[in-house]
């Protein structure tokens, strides 16, 4: 949701570093891109609407040792050249990720003060305020300006009078990276330059003065602040997409490895004793997240109900703050988030923590905002997930949640089962011919309904999200039993219903749904792990028989099959599955 980057170099060309960084950060927004570079002739700013590649030629001609850059996901003002960042006024250039909620009032005030605005963005008020507040002391101007802002912001500020960058953080993510070439700031660790070998994560309210030699951290009152520097190896994240045509396909193929690494990290890095106490003593368990992370909660709820014998509920994080939930000192909240930065999730679990709950983060990103709120973190080891559509991270979340749900029973047996089911995913991905067939049906349909019962219903909801976000075909995930209570009215020869049947005890009832759709002339596809079902329905539906596995763990395999269907549908329609329109990878605004 907008990416910012900046580098101050002891050697090398900062413009080239920033451009490369923007390519890595593009998953955070691709409405426009821009950069400011401190050159011998002063600060030069270039920006373009659309993808980062549109900036390539202009960036190639720039050189300097300090630069900032921005990829935009538009919130205020349409995607265009004029609304692209950096925003420039007087001696300043700023890049901003976040939302300034009181921008109208501040804009009004600056207009009265004689300022002229050139964009429709909320961000431009920041650069206008900086100009007003600056009289030679850059940090003081930064502090005065941000005191006026309501909302969220990660900022990279350049000033003609300073050979470096000022970074500011409040609620939006930013990290500061250190390495042999100099110092960098960036929205996400995986997009940092390869030469970065250590990071500091500023706290909310921090202002950081960055030069090529050093970074000084201050709190909002401009008192020096000591922030821990942790070693990392940024190079491990910057792995590209290899021979795969899209990140999505590459990342789906990393599922088995994700399950394995998530299991290993669980036993290596998690405070298992404390986590077991939380689970054992929980009076209720609340699973929460947004989008795919929420959908992982829908599957995992069944793990917990089965294993822990405790009341378990799943809540959409963006709604949780407005829901009447009962919290005690024994309530356990499992906060699920790939990025660890989703504002709705972070805000929701912060308030549950305040109310007394134990909060455990289940996340793919260490050092992220959610890990700072949580009492404990359970890592999902998917590695960098670049495609906007979550794939391997969803399965990694399921693996981590399955392990947590088995803490009070036989955790080692659980691990063994997970490794086995990871192998089944590997097996599935060796032969995806049926995915082509079902994808073709999807691409030719006006709407696609995903139906299932029990865990298959939870998978149906995720399958629907995946298909709609990357193919732009209308779809819905629905309990198969609910079909006759309303959705059946939408079925006709132009719609496709994909019915997931992996639980033998529910199979016959799901087969009813197949008949109900087929008898209304609707097209039907079936994803099943059950040989008998595949055989029975082969003449009624396009059937994909996926590897057999237990009903409880079948979502690991069926969900991957449906990710492949979504991927192939999107590609056949000429969509870019990695960067679907209007979306961004990490949603850091509420
Ligand atoms: C998934 O395909 C989506 N792009 C989206 O729903 C995502 O899962 C959601 O925004 C939550 O993100 P998080 O896991 O980083 O919190």
Would you kindly provide a brief summary of this structure?
This protein is of the alpha/beta class and 590 residues long. It has 19 helices and 24 strands.
How would you sum up this structure, described in words?
The chain has 19 helices and 24 strands. The radius of gyration is 25 Å and the shape is globular. It is α/β, with parallel strands linked by helices. It has an eight-stranded antiparallel beta sheet, covered by helices on one side. The protein folds into three domains: 3-236, Glutamine Phosphoribosylpyrophosphate, subunit 1, domain 1 (4-Layer Sandwich), CATH 3.60.20; 242-428, Glucose-6-phosphate isomerase like protein, domain 1 (Rossmann fold, 3-Layer(aba) Sandwich), CATH 3.40.50; 431-575, Rossmann fold. The model has no long low-confidence stretch (mean pLDDT 95). Helix 4 crosses helix 5. The protein is 37% helix and 23% strand. Helix 16 links the parallel strand 20 (447-452) and strand 21.
Q: What tags apply to this protein structure?
A:
24 strands; globular; single chain; Rossmann fold; six-stranded antiparallel β-sheet; eight-stranded antiparallel β-sheet; binds 2-deoxy-2-amino glucitol-6-phosphate; alpha/beta; Glutamine Phosphoribosylpyrophosphate, subunit 1, domain 1; 590 residues
Seen as an oligomer or otherwise, the chain set is single chain
CATH superfamily of the largest domain: Aminohydrolase, N-terminal nucleophile (Ntn) domain
Sheet with the most strands?
8 strands, antiparallel
The CATH class of the largest domain is Alpha Beta
What's the total count of β strands?
Answer: 24
Ranges where pLDDT stays below 50 over 5 or more residues in a row are none
Approximate strand percentage: 15-25%
Work out the helicity level.
25-40%
